[in-house]
């Protein structure tokens, strides 16, 4: 009977530990946010969404130039307007 209590208690502790764990892949090894990586991933995502209408290379160059301080949001026309073109 005591072993069942220990097992139940261990499971409760394990589940409460898992529930408190959070993951943040945008944090680099030095503890800061990896804005450049976020910016480049967003450029790639927008390129997948808009295809030839989106200048992915120009977006990536802007990320590098501004060190990730501008982050394109594929659903915000204002943030991706400089990278759109009229593909005919």
- Give the N-terminus to C-terminus distance in angstroms: 75 Å
Strand proportion? under 5%
- Care to count the β-strands? 0
Gyration radius, rounded: 22 Å
**Low-confidence sequence ranges:** none
Structural class: mainly alpha
What would the average pLDDT be, to the nearest integer? 82
Order of helices and strands: HHHH
Shape: elongated
Number of helices: 4
Main sheet record: none
Proportion in helices: 55-70%
Task: Sum up the structure in keywords.
88 residues; 4 helices; mainly alpha
Describe the protein in words.
The chain is mainly alpha-helical. It is built from 4 helices and no strands. Helix 2 runs antiparallel to helix 3. The mean pLDDT is 82.
List the helices and strands and how they pair.
Layout: H1 2-20, H2 35-50, H3 56-65, H4 77-80
Summarize the structure.
The chain is an all-alpha fold and 88 residues long. The chain is built from 4 helices and no strands. The protein has helices spanning 2-20, 35-50, 56-65, 77-80.
């Amino acid at each position: 009977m005591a072993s069942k209590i220990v097992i139940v208690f261990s499971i409760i502790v394990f589940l409460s530990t898992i529930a408190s764990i959070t993951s943040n892949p945008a944090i680099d090894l030095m503890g800061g946010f990896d804005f450049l990586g976020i910016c480049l991933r967003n450029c790639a995502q927008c390129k997948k969404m808009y295809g030839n209408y989106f200048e992915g290379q120009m977006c990536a160059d802007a990320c590098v130039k501004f060190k990730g301080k501008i982050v394109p949001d594929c659903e915000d026309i204002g943030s991706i307007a400089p990278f759109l073109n009229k593909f005919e």
